Amino acid sequence: MDLADRYINSESVKRMLQSDQVALAGKTAILFTKDGGQHNNLHDMQCRWYELSSDESYFRHGDFGRALEKFIAVEKHYADIIEYQFDFHSYCLRKMTPRAYVGKLKFKDWFHSHAYFTK
C-alpha cells in the first residue's frame, strides 16, 4: 500500500470496515494520523466517516456496547461543533463580518440535516 496516497488508503479502510475487518482497518487508518500510532487521533480529528463505519461494523457483529459508545462519541462531535458556534456569534459581531455571520446561520439550518448527523 502506498502510504503517500491518502485517497486510495482511505477507500481501502472504508472497504475493510464494510467487510467487518475493524481491527485491520484501525491499524491501517492510524498510519495516516499525525503521530502515526495513536488511535485517539482519529477521534480528536473528528473523523466521522471512520467512526460511523466502525460503529456500524460493531453493530453488525452484535457488539452493541462498543457500538453505542462510539455512536455517542460521534454525537458529541456535533455537540462540540454547536458549542463552538456560540463563540463565532460574538466574533462576527465584534469583527463586523456580516457575510461570514450569514453563512454561519445558513450552516446552522443545514447542520442537523447532514447525512452523518441523521445516520
Nutshell version of this structure?
The protein has 119 residues and is an all-alpha fold. 76% of the residues lie in helices and 0% in strands.
Tell me about this structure.
Helix 1 packs antiparallel against helix 2 and helix 1 packs parallel to helix 4. This protein has seven helices and no strands. The mean pLDDT is 79. The protein is mostly helical and 119 residues long.
Which keywords apply here?
119 residues, 76% helix
The average pLDDT score comes to 79
Helix content: over 70%
Number of domains: 1
> Major beta sheet, specifics?
none
Pick out the low-confidence regions. Answer: none
What is the number of beta strands?
Answer: 0
Number of helices: 7
Alpha carbon gyration radius: 17 Å
Layout of helices and strands:
Elements lengths: L5 H13 L3 H8 L10 H5 L3 H14 L2 H32 L2 H14 L3 H4 L1
